[in-house]
Amino acid sequence: MELTKNITLGVYLPGETVIHRLDPRTKIIIASVLIILLLMIKSYPAYAVILTFLSAVIFMSGIPLSYALCGLKPMLPVLILMWVFQLFLYSNPDSKVIFSFWIFTATDSGMHMGNLISLRVIFLFTVTTILTLTTSMVSLTDGLESLLNPLRKFGLPIQELVMTMVIALRFVLILAEELDKIVKAQMARGVAFDRGNFIQKTKKLFPVFLPLFINAFKRAEELIVAMEARSYTGGKGRTKMKTLQMSRVDLGAGFVMLIFSAIVVLLIITIKPQI
Amino acid sequence: MPIEIKNLCHSYKKGTPFEKKVLHNVDLIINDGEFVGLIGSTQSGKTTLAQHFNALIIPQNGKVIINGCNTADKNAELIKLRQNVGYVFQNPDYQLFASTVGEDIAFGPKNQKLSPGEVNSRVLEAMEQVGLDYNTFYERDIFALSGGQKRRVAIAGVLACHPQILILDDVTAGLDPKGREEILTVIRKLHFEYMITIIFISNSMDEVARLVERIVVLDQGNIIIDGATRDIFNQAARLGDIGLELPEVMDITTKLRNKGFNLPQAVINIDEAIESISADLLERQVGD
After folding, report:
1. Site from A189, A213, A218, A219 to mutate, B interface, most B CB atoms within 10 angstroms
2. Burial (0-12, 13-18, 19+ Cβ within 10 Å), A203
3. What would the pLDDT profile of A148-169 be if each residue is shown by its tens digit?
4. Is A109 left (phi over 0), alpha (psi -120 to 50) or beta?
């Protein structure tokens, strides 16, 4: 059992591909545009365009497809549950009944709704995963900071906010690794996590989550001291070792993105929604 | 309860780009009543190998047979097996969760569904085994303990399950010299008085040399040396080659030997060193 194996969010897979070398700002903007588009899409053809785009990006980034998608594995039960809910609960006036039993009725519009929502979750997840897999923590921080910098005029502590977010992302993996060890330590003392009824199973989580929380607080405290020891005072007066520089590749990427977005927007406007 | 390992391979994060082979075709047999030291530098695969011993890791390739039971077998009673093979983790913070010492030690026996009376006698016994006074410590808050005391509570928590084999994963790491001595004394007592088979994982040659009877050296996922402690220190040069430090005592005696002292090859603890050096000095005086 390895809990950390399927966690891809917040993991960086070093590489030298075009996707890796893109300016983090370009990648963050492209990801944001994709996310906005995904939230507007209500038909299959538009998803097909996004699928083409993402497949190309994954291929170019050299990330094994199986690895890019393995983070979805733990989410599968939730996705299936969501799909079933939509199938039976959603319907609009002109939907056809597929089948029905007892008080449940499955409609074709419910099925489409289920499909579209599942696709949306899968694509949203894949977009963010590709972003973190191809962008190191440092450049992700720099990129976000530089993009959000204008908001500083309104008194928002951008550097601090970005730092907090990035640390949180980083802790996902650290805590998962720690959870793995704690689970093993308690299993070694005879806890059978998969036995008993719901209440008994819930009770068995205490010996796991208590040490996890205590260690997380301890870790956070150590991190604070370590940061202060290196004179961290937030964003004020901070300079960069590497300044971000857009290149021709970024221009190209932006151009490609523009074309794809235009197609998707066109499809959103012209095609009648499936639901 | 013999442990038998055949052709064991293990890869970390198998099937991802981060896949890393940690164990390469490991073969090992550990018999009842042995006192084994498992050493190797960090990342050598010690912990991964040891976690196979009580089925915390199920083999990806190869076989792990504990007391005739194959851990990869679907019908294997792993819960029962883990009661017989205790595992103490390096960091007690991963294990301790209850508010008091007594409560935490009672966790294992309670999982075995023993009666309250039995649980209590197990706790009492385990605390005695690790040298924690029942009256002083039973009600003590876990957070009020020192590093060494925490380790002892963690060991007691595993001992209370009555294991026949005890795996100690680098339990002296990060302790001050006093805390370390206390733990080593406890471990010695567990083996020689309570007859528990012990597998002691460490990266300190000093400790291993003083403690165990048999040494297994892991290097990059391969067992490269396996034998009686004294035999192994007779091949001092090989240990240096893989980056393991020799015990300090051996270091000093080697230097003395180079200066013309007549000392045996493998002097592995201070008592032996004193004995052989004084014997040599005496001989010289007689010679004069």
Report:
1. A189
2. exposed
3. 988 888 888 888 888 888 888 8
4. alpha
What is d(CA B20, CA B44) in angstroms, rounded to the nearest whole number? 12
Residue B244 has pLDDT above 80, yes or no: no
Determine the residue of chain B that is closest to A2 in CA distance.
Answer: B13
ipTM summary value: 0.84
Q: Do B111 and A4 touch (CB under 8 A)?
A: no
Nearest by Cα to B30 from B270, B226, B257, B168:
B226
Tens of pLDDT, residues B32-48: 999 999 988 888 899 99
C-alpha closest to that of A264 among A52, A27, A22: A52
- Rounded to 10°, the helix A24-40/A44-61 angle is 160
Who wins on pLDDT, B77 or B122?
B122
Q: What is the mean pLDDT of residues B228-235?
A: 82
What backbone torsions phi and psi does residue B272 show, to the nearest 5 degrees?
Answer: -65, -40
- CB A190 to CB B157 under 8 A? no
Cβ distance of A190 and B108 shorter than 8 Å: yes
Interface residue B13 vs chain A (CB under 8 A): yes
Are B23 and B8 contacting, i.e. CB atoms less than 8 angstroms apart? yes
Structure token pair of residue B24: 């390469």
Question: What are the structural domains of chain B?
Answer: 3-246 (3.40.50.300), 247-288 (no CATH)
Tell me what pLDDT residue B256 has: 87
Q: Where are the domains of chain A?
A: 1-154+241-275, 158-234
Look at residue B87 in the predicted model and tell me its pLDDT.
94
